[in-house]
Amino acid sequence: MATIQVEKRKRGIFGWIVAMLFWGFNVLMAVWVLSFWGSLGGLYDQSEDQYVQAGTAIGGTIGTGMLFALWFFGAMILGLMMFFTRGKKVITTREFSD
Questions:
Q1: pLDDT value at position 70?
Q2: pTM of the predicted model as reported, rounded to 2 decimal places
Q3: What is the total count of domains within the chain?
Q4: Rounded to whole angstroms, what are the CA distances from 22 to 6, 52, 78, 79, 86?
């Protein structure tokens, strides 16, 4: 017989709330970035002036950088909270035959 010890983490209610906030934030940010890029494409295509198109491209780049920075820092903060609320270790022992 072989014995295997399996380690799992048991989250509490607060840990699950933090985990849902983390994943919800990441989905929300992905939707926000994609909708921002979609609206930029529409603005760029509507304008015929090259200066307006250049301004749209530059502003879109700055806006995208700001959104990515917000996404990064928010994900880091919520990710650390998710790590620290992961719960206690629960070790289970399983025996099986070879």
A1: 98
A2: 0.79
A3: 1
A4: 26, 37, 5, 7, 13
